[in-house]
Task: inverse folding
């Protein structure tokens, strides 16, 4: 089969490798149909690492994916050949203290697709995954939308672990894919007003079309002053979705006393800081969001029941052979890109 691998910083090659085979009774072999380009993939592409997770070349990234089942192991009952599936990329053990306490997203023995030292990613023609990681999707659901269920599950999880959304004053800083995947379930649950910021104008326009009350570009205006002018008491919750220090600082400043700052973005630096006087005097609650736990089916239900529309998120499409072009586009934040999708057919 063909597999796209990183071979160095901003370098990748399409290689011929042996097709993986079913090894365990619960294994499922899947033909890839679509893979989304995620921000974490770009970290590995441009930096070769995320913190202590360092790429050893060659290595395939990719974890947002959907495909068609071609073969199943002897014990598999959840899916059968021909089924269309979205894939949960986190392969958890189910037996450690974290899994047993309902925190499989911090599983001690987690193996995550496209994560160095854990598992090769989904930028390949065929993938083998455990049955528990395969979620059937309807014939009317596009493979691209099945793929979007992965980041959407993160957004749903973040919203779930924040505050009640009904009537909440919400800020989302960074309207990339994760920002959108927070906005959509927040609005579906009755959030409002909702304030969004980003440095890419096209993303702000999509956010406005998607239901944002107000949008602003921090490179062009004082977004803190603009938001507080409309909400002098401050916001109830802010979702920081870009991993930038300036956004963290803005989030602290626009929150009301007792407000909650949800940290979702992955910083490219080793440390971030907080203006402790403001943080302490306001008694701001900090919550880190680590991927998601148990929200994939919720994400698919929102999509397939048409309670939210994720179609506008995919702004660019590339065939598998042009994956590097997709990565360069996303890494350079060019052409108003929101989500680039790799299509295999």
Result:
């Amino acid at each position: 089969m063909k597999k796209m691998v990183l071979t160095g910083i901003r370098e990748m090659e399409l290689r011929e490798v042996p097709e993986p085979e079913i090894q365990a009774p619960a294994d499922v072999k899947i033909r890839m149909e679509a893979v989304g380009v995620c921000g974490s993939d770009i970290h590995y592409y441009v930096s070769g690492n995320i913190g202590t997770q360092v790429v050893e070349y060659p290595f395939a990234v990719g974890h947002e994916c959907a495909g068609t089942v071609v073969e199943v192991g002897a014990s598999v009952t959840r899916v059968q050949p021909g089924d269309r599936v979205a894939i949960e990329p986190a392969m958890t053990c189910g037996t450690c203290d974290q899994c047993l306490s309902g925190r499989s997203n911090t599983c001690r023995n987690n193996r995550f697709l496209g994560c160095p030292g854990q598992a090769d990613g989904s930028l390949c023609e065929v993938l083998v995954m455990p049955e528990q990681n395969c979620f059937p999707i309807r014939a009317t659901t596009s493979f691209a939308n099945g793929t979007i269920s992965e980041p959407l599950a993160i957004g749903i999880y973040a919203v779930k672990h924040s505050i009640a959304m009904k009537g909440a004053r919400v800020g989302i800083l960074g309207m990339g894919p994760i920002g959108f995947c927070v906005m959509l379930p927040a609005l579906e649950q009755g959030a409002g007003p909702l304030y969004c910021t980003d440095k890419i104008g096209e993303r702000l326009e999509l956010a406005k079309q998607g239901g944002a009350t107000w949008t602003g570009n921090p490179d062009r205006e004082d977004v803190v002053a603009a938001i507080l002018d409309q909400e002098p008491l401050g916001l109830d919750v802010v979702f920081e979705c870009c991993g930038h220090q300036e956004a963290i600082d803005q989030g602290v400043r626009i929150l009301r006393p007792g407000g909650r700052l949800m940290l979702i973005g992955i910083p490219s630096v080793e440390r971030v800081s907080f203006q402790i006087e403001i943080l302490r005097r306001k008694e701001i609650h900090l919550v880190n969001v680590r991927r998601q736990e148990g929200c994939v089916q919720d994400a698919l239900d929102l999509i397939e029941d048409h309670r939210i529309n994720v179609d506008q998120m995919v702004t660019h499409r590339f065939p598998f052979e042009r994956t590097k072009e997709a990565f360069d586009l996303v890494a350079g934040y060019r052409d108003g890109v929101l989500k680039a999708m790799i299509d295999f057919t």
